[in-house]
Design a protein that fits this description.
The protein has a 5-stranded antiparallel beta sheet with strand order 1-9-8-7-6, with helices on one face. Strands 3-2-4-5 form a 4-stranded antiparallel beta sheet, with no helix packed on it. It has 211 residues and is α+β, with helices and mostly antiparallel strands. Strand 2 (103-105) and strand 3 form a beta hairpin. It has helices at residues 3-11, 22-69, 73-87, 150-160, and strands spanning 95-100, 103-105, 114-116, 126-128, 133-135, 140-142, 176-180, 186-195, 202-210. Helices cover 39% and strands 21% of the residues. The protein is built from 4 helices and 9 strands.
Length: 211
């Protein structure tokens, strides 16, 4: 027997034959791929969760620091508004005088009170006869603004001589006028209350003088 014959016999022995099934190989490869993909997905998910947690923690810390370092605007504005209210001067309260029938008043006197008189003569600025109010030297002027606006409007109206009341006038509650006293002081008055009667009438006036 030759050497070639021996080699052929060894080669043809059942123990030396290697077989490979394609289906088994494919299943093995597929199973490894699934396991590997699952591992990669789990790792990526874990890393993503850690990153999101770190980002949220950093953002909350930064916001907390900003809140502590930034003063509250509403409180500051409220304090400013309160300070402005305290600094703003209070509006002057009008003086008040009551004139009965056939009395007059000198408004230039502090704490002016009514006195019996036949008309607005001498120092008497206003006279009430029970029905009509009259002024000294045509010192009343028509006015249709507000009490607050009178501070600037009445000096202008009086200096320009606009709308003087020509003579004695029947005045009703709520009526307003600018005025000029016998000493030339400009003022404002409004009718608080009035009763028209020849002998028992009266008029209550609120007034301000602008020195």
């Amino acid at each position: 027997m030759t050497n070639n014959d021996r080699d052929r016999k060894k080669t043809n022995r059942p123990g030396n034959v290697k077989t490979s099934d394609p289906a088994v190989t494919a299943a093995f490869v597929s199973r490894r791929g699934v396991i590997l993909a699952a591992l990669i997905t789990a790792v990526v998910g874990l890393v993503s969760a850690v990153l999101v947690a770190l980002i949220n923690t950093s953002a909350q810390s930064a916001k907390g620091a900003d809140d502590r370092s930034t003063p509250s605007r509403p409180s500051s504005q409220s304090a400013t508004g309160t300070q402005q209210q305290q600094d703003k001067p209070a509006e002057a309260v009008p003086e008040q005088v009551k004139l009965d029938a056939d009395t007059a008043v000198d408004l230039d006197k502090p704490g002016a009170t009514a006195a019996s008189a036949t008309g607005p003569n001498g120092d008497m600025d206003l006279h009430f006869d029970g029905s009509n109010l009259s002024s000294n030297r045509s010192g009343l002027f028509y006015y249709h603004g507000t009490e607050q606006e009178a501070t600037t409007q009445c000096p202008k109206i009086v200096s320009e001589g606009k709308g003087p009341v020509p003579g004695p006038e029947v005045i009703f509650a709520g009526g307003q006028h600018c005025l000029r006293t016998s000493q030339g002081t400009v003022g404002w008055l409004s009718v608080n209350d009035v009763k028209i009667a020849a002998n028992s009438g009266y008029i209550v006036l609120n007034y301000k003088l602008f020195h």
